[in-house]
Design brief:
About 30% of the residues lie in helices and about 25% in strands. It is of the alpha/beta class. The strands form 3 sheets. The chain has a 9-stranded mixed sheet. Strands 2-1-3-4-5 form a 5-stranded parallel sheet, with helices on both faces. The protein has a two-stranded antiparallel ribbon with strand order 13-14.
């Protein structure tokens, strides 16, 4: 199959490099409004189309990747679907649930496949936490914390501009929230409370914290920060029988569980203000430490699935109702932060 790329920035070049490693898929060419990106494409030995219309009119193109700024995903995706081209849209698929509904309606009307590059469903840290939950390694889980922290603010491009869909909720939140909703696929999200930050940028959110309460009583904290010079753990999961931590992208961390030994002789911790047994560390003989059950993955499986869907061999791994649920949750986060209110969600 041959894919045409509309918008050839940094992420689109990542797609090009990834596609080069996938048997049966190749880049037919690109279109970008910027001359320097068109020249870079030529340096990569790619065909450069003179317009979106020329690209969509090429009968040799089997599918289209839309990797433009966020506000352009919707009109270009609709244009491509009406031209009969299956579409992979970069995330977020668009800026609102009403826009997404329009795109879904066109996909249904034309019968043309639309999907979204929710690539962090293949992140090994996420898959490892999912395995820990699936195998009940911590007992009944009551809290999940998911974070990404940086210290350089927002990248100095369109991601700083609200009209183009900038900000961290739409940039990173769309990934972390999608991961959590996949973990809680069959559980209703009852309440949402959120705040956003504007430390380095006054036009768009440069970070946010969301507290999500699910029907099964699990509380989830999702946080993105861009002014954090000491990063907190990527994942921190609490269960009745143990705790799991993944510290960073290198998958360092561990699982610590109770060993079932009755700890009668707790040695108090002496603090400046007095003694505490409650917060004293456990003796090593009362706990078990386990290595993380690392789950390996292959991000190229995203495109392998896209090709199989087009060939009518598989179901899409990214379902649009799942994408809609994430979009509505992002809208709820903005609304909760704006009015400083807890919102009912589902």
């Amino acid at each position: 199959m041959k894919i045409g790329i509309i918008g050839f920035g940094g992420m689109a070049n990542w797609h090009r490099e990834t596609i080069a490693e996938i048997e049966g898929l190749e880049v037919a060419g690109i279109y970008d409004v910027k001359e320097e990106r068109r020249e870079f494409a030529k340096e990569c030995n790619l065909h450069v189309y003179n317009s979106i219309e020329e690209l969509l009119g090429d009968p040799g193109i089997d599918l289209v990747l839309v990797a433009t700024p966020n506000d352009l995903h919707k009109p270009i995706a609709i244009q491509a679907m009406r031209a009969g081209k299956p579409v992979v849209s970069e995330k977020p698929v668009t800026l609102s649930s009403s826009d997404l509904q329009e795109m879904m309606d066109v996909s249904e009307e034309t019968g043309v496949y639309l999907t979204v590059h929710q690539n962090r469903r293949w992140d090994e840290d996420f898959l490892t936490i999912q395995k820990i939950l699936d195998e009940n390694k911590l007992g009944e889980v009551f809290r999940i914390e998911s974070r990404v922290h940086g210290s350089r603010g927002i990248p100095g491009d369109w991601r700083q501009e609200k009209e183009h869909g900038g900000g961290m909720v739409l940039d990173w939140g769309v990934h972390l929230l999608d991961q959590i909703l996949m973990m809680m696929k069959d559980v209703k999200l009852k309440r949402v409370f959120a705040s956003v930050t504007n430390v380095t940028n006054q036009l768009v959110d440069d970070g946010f914290t969301a507290i999500l309460t699910f029907e099964n009583k699990v509380e989830v904290l999702v946080e993105v920060g861009t002014s954090n010079f000491i990063s907190l753990p990527r994942w921190y999961v609490l269960g009745q029988d143990g705790t799991a931590i993944i510290k960073d992208w290198d998958l360092s961390g561990e699982i610590v569980c109770a060993a079932g030994v009755n700890e009668k002789d707790v040695v108090p911790v002496r603090t400046a203000a007095g003694l505490t047994k409650t917060m004293a560390p456990r003796r090593e003989d009362t706990i078990h430490r386990y290595e993380l059950p690392i789950v390996k993955s292959d991000i190229r499986d995203f495109y392998r699935n896209v090709m199989a869907v087009i060939e009518k061999k598989e179901e899409s791994k990214i379902q649009l109702p799942e994408v809609m649920r994430v979009m509505k949750l992002m809208e709820a986060i903005f609304e909760s932060a704006r009015f400083n209110q807890v919102l009912d969600f589902e």
